[in-house]
Amino acid sequence: MRVALFSDIHGNRRGLDACLDDLTSQGGADQIVAAGDLCLDGPRPRDVLERLDALGARCVRGNTDRMIGDVDAGIDDQEEADGVAWQRAQLGETWTRWLRELPFSLRIGTGSDALLVVHANPKSDDEHIWPDAGDATLERLLSGVEERTIAFGHLHLPYVRMWRDRLLVDVASAGLPKDGDPRACYAIFTQRSGGWEVKHRRVAFDVDKVAREIEKSGMPRRKRHIEVLRRHRYKELGERIP
Fold first, then answer.
1. Domain holding 99: CATH number?
2. Count of the separate structural domains present in the chain
3. With CB atoms counted within 10 Å of each terminal CB, which end of the chain scores lower, N or C?
């Protein structure tokens, strides 16, 4: 069993397509899974969802998917509310509802040897699992979880960590990398006897073309979104990771 796992595409169809082309060069996968944050911040949210749907991808809901899908929830920050409203307008009612109805998690396999896919962690969709998270944090976030292999995104930072008997894999971002590397990232999981093998793939995409798509899209705060796309790095990473 081979599973290709993408996360945090953020409406970047070019980044997603580059990763899919690379996946083909790697021999493909039995299942394609997207671990949330599929739309917000990018210029082509509907294109991303239609592409994933055409592939038969299984998807879980990220925090920004929840934000877009929950049409009855108020958003206090007006700039953020404007951005969500633009995303909903591009998606239309059907795709907005589709985001709202996505599951929080999915499991591939059975028992403790299964692969558990979530957006941020097994307890919530918006708390990071940093690569240097301490025992107390991991005990809190992983307590009661049967699966020994847990895959997630949210942090836009690729890493693999063994913690006790757990394999923790952040598959990073296929559309908005933030670890200092401008290339998109995804991961391929291969099921072996008693566990999962994982490898990350870094794939270049045309950042300039995506920036032009943002500029032409009419989405709010275009200058800021282009700056984030080109920066390729969280500002706070400097405090935690050299």
1. 3.60.21.10
2. 1
3. C
